[in-house]
Amino acid sequence: MPVGGLIVQRSYQAARWVDGSLHVWAAHRTRVSSGLPPSGVRYDFLVE
To answer: Does a structural domain hold residue 8?
Structure first.
């Protein structure tokens, strides 16, 4: 896990409408990473 910065998680949601059709979408959750303050090094970290 990254130390400092943001963590963005993507999950897929699905639901059926009243006519029975399926609807799927991507939901994103963003939260602040806990831990020590960043050291000034910049990087991206992707978790799928």
So the answer is: yes
The token pair at 26 is 């991507």
At 44, which amino acid appears?
D
Comparing CA positions, the residue from 18, 27, 35 lying closest to residue 6 is: 35
Strand pairing partners for 12?
26
Helices and strands: H and E segment counts in the chain: 0, 2
- Total domains in the fold of the chain: 1
pTM for the model: 0.46
First-last CA distance in the chain: 13
User: For the segment 3-48, what is each residue's pLDDT rounded down to a tens digit?
Assistant: 567 778 899 999 999 999 999 999 988 887 766 655 666 666 666 6
